[in-house]
């Protein structure tokens, strides 16, 4: 799966928690990987300027090159094999007999039909981004319908609560719809915007309004609130389904990335062991021993598969943490309700 563009998305950053989450969720992972490796390289080179034992002395006396890089060979082969094997075990859950596949197909079609009936669509789009777009648009429609039935309501407090609720739901929905309109599942934008829609809070707010004003709400208003809640409840399973597909897609890409990197990394490790010793590239460049430059570069190449693994897992783990609770449960402190009574 290709990464989302690294263009500015200040609205999404604000909704999802700022720069830290933008780095974890939006920043191109190859750029993130290069940045980490560059920092490691700079630290290793800078360490040679400290009052420490010179690298060339260590290499000549202790055969440090072979000791260091031979360990990388075993680590790369073992680590890559384990990760790819685990990924294949996870993906093997998609395999099954024809009966299992028909049941999954039937359940998927039933859910799609339920969504279409709820949002009054003849046929919902097949693309994940467009499907979520129509579902969120349905929430906007339900909000406007709720606002319309409250125009003749005499309870000013209730009307204000409904107006605030509708404004919040509509604003959030329109922001998400704008980003989902051209989002392709081959990028992270679909999941990014699905995370931006706080449907759990909207379910709670709607139920809170209905319970607090049960005596004031008309039957029609009650029906519209129920319809609103039913529409919001469909967003959770849809998001979880696309999140599962995204995780599987990412595991496949992680396996491919590690396999692509492993062979070049092993080749560099072999070159370092076979051709680099205490007599290699005598002299210095920019005040740093040439052996430090080349050994640091070899070390960075050696850890590159592990860093790629880190950047993929960080994103998957971050998405998983932010979607632990499906439905009317809010785990993040930033979204807790002030009224806990």
Sequence stretches where pLDDT stays below 50 over 5 or more residues: 1-16, 334-341
Beta strands, count: 2
Instruction: Give the biggest beta sheet.
Output: 2 strands, antiparallel
Count of helix runs:
12
Q: What is the percentage of strand-forming residues?
A: under 5%
Q: Mind telling me the C-alpha Rg?
A: 27 Å
- Provide the succession of SSEs: HHHHHHHHHHHEEH
Mean pLDDT: 81
What is the helical fraction, as a range of percent? over 70%
Shape: elongated
Q: Write down the domain tally.
A: 1
Task: Give the end-to-end Cα distance, rounded to a whole number of Å.
Answer: 45 Å
Helix and strand content put the structural class at: mainly alpha
Question: What's the arrangement of strands in the largest beta sheet?
Answer: 1-2
């Amino acid at each position: 799966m290709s990464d989302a563009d690294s263009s500015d998305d200040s609205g999404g950053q604000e909704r999802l928690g700022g720069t830290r989450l933008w780095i974890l969720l939006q920043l191109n992972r190859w750029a993130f990987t290069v940045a980490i490796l560059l920092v490691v390289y700079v630290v290793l080179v800078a360490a040679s300027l400290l009052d420490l034992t010179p690298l060339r002395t260590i290499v000549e006396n202790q055969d440090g090159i072979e000791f260091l890089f031979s360990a990388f060979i075993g680590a790369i082969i073992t680590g890559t094999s384990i990760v790819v094997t685990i990924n294949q075990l996870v993906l093997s859950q998609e395999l099954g007999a024809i009966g299992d596949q028909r049941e999954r197909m039937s359940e998927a079609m039933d859910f799609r039909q339920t969504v279409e009936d709820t949002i009054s669509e003849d046929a919902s789009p097949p693309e994940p981004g467009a499907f979520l777009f129509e579902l969120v648009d349905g929430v906007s429609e339900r909000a406007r319908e709720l606002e319309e039935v409250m125009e003749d309501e005499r309870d000013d407090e209730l009307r204000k609560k409904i107006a605030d609720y509708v404004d919040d739901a509509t604003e959030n929905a329109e922001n998400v719809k704008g980003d989902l309109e051209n989002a392709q599942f081959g990028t992270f934008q679909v999941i990014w915007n699905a995370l931006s829609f706080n449907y759990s809070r909207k379910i709670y707010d709607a139920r809170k309004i209905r319970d607090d004003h049960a005596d004031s709400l008309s039957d029609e208003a009650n029906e519209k609130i129920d319809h609103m809640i039913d529409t919001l409840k469909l967003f959770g399973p849809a998001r979880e389904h696309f999140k599962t597909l995204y995780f599987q897609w990412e595991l496949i890409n992680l396996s491919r990335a590690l396999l692509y990197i492993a062979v070049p990394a092993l080749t560099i490790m072999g070159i370092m062991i076979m051709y680099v010793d205490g007599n290699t590239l005598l002299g210095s460049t920019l005040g740093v021993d040439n052996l430090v430059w080349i050994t640091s570069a070899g070390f960075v190449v050696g850890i590159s598969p592990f860093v790629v693994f880190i950047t993929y897992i960080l994103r998957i783990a971050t998405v998983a943490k932010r979607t632990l609770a499906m439905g009317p449960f809010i785990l993040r402190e930033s979204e807790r309700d002030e009224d806990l009574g």
